[in-house]
Amino acid sequence: AAKLAAGNNSSNRIINSSSNMSSSASLDKNPFTAGTTTVGATGTRKVFIPRDFTNGLELRFSTAFPVQLQGRIPEETFVAVVTNINEILTAAERGSPAVYMESIFACLTGYLLYLCIDTHYEKSLKQVSRLVAEYNRTTFEPNRLMLVDPSDRGLRVLEIVVLND
Amino acid sequence: MPEPPWREYRGRSRIACGGRCVMARNMAIFYLTLGLIIICSALFFAFDCRFLAASLSPAVPAAAAVQFVFVLCCLFRTTCSDPGIVPRGTPEEAAWIEEEIEPPKAEPHGAYRPQPRLKDVVIGGRVFKLKYCYTCKLWRPPRASHCSSCDNCVDRFDHHCPWVGNCVGRRNYRYFFMFLASLSVYCVYIMVFSIANIAILAKAKDNLFDALKESPASILVALVAFFSIWSVMGLAGFHVLLMCREVSTNEDIKGVFNKKRNPDCINPFDRGDGCANCCYVLFGPTQPSLLNVRPWRDDENNSDGEPYADGVGAGVISNTDGGEFDDQEDNGARELSSAEGLLSNGAGAGGGRRRGEPQYGSTETASVAQAEELPIGQVRITKSERSDSRPVNWESPEL
Question: Golgin subfamily A member 7/ERF4 domain: from which residue to which, for each copy (chain A) (predicted)?
Answer without folding.
Answer: 47-159
